[in-house]
Design a protein that fits this description.
By secondary structure, the protein is an alpha+beta fold. It contains five helices and five strands. The strands form two sheets. The chain has a three-stranded antiparallel beta sheet. Helix 1 crosses helix 4 and helix 3 packs antiparallel against helix 4. The longest helix is centred in the middle third of the chain and has 19 residues. The protein is globular, with a radius of gyration of 15 Å.
């Protein structure tokens, strides 16, 4: 990893209709791409596909910000606490990659928005620690 520079910002857009098609065509895809908590969150909404699309965009944005790409489908979890911005948990290969480049979960800042047509997510890596 010597000489590797973390891009520090990632963005992704997902077409809601394509997400809906994928969910209907392959129902098991939920368990491959999303955690139990993410599924529970999305399924409580009338237009669940919008929320799934937002979470998928977030996963892509996080891995782009780290500079590793989506090396593990379920290696990023979007966590949403009541009345707060979404946060991120990382696992497996993605967590190992982040550790290797010196990025912690708390360094990942996420924003997600969606409409009936598309979902967009942006992730920024922001380190507030003093290295020493």
């Amino acid at each position: 990893m010597e000489g590797f520079v973390v891009p520090g910002i990632g963005v992704d857009v997902v077409d809601v209709e394509r997400m809906q098609f994928a969910l209907e065509r392959t129902p098991k895809i939920r368990r491959r791409l999303f955690t139990e908590a993410e599924i529970a969150y999305c399924e409580k909404y009338r237009f669940a596909e919008r929320h799934y699309a937002g979470r998928w965009a977030a996963k892509e944005a996080v891995t782009k910000a780290l500079g590793c790409g989506l090396i593990q489908w379920n290696g990023v979890e979007v966590v949403r606490l009541p009345r707060s911005a979404p946060t991120v948990r990382i696992f497996g290969k993605i967590k190992k990659f982040a550790e290797a480049v010196g990025v912690l979960e708390e360094d990942l800042y996420l924003s997600i928005t969606h409409s009936e047509l598309s979902a967009v997510a942006v992730c920024v890596v922001r380190r507030e620690r003093i290295s020493g």
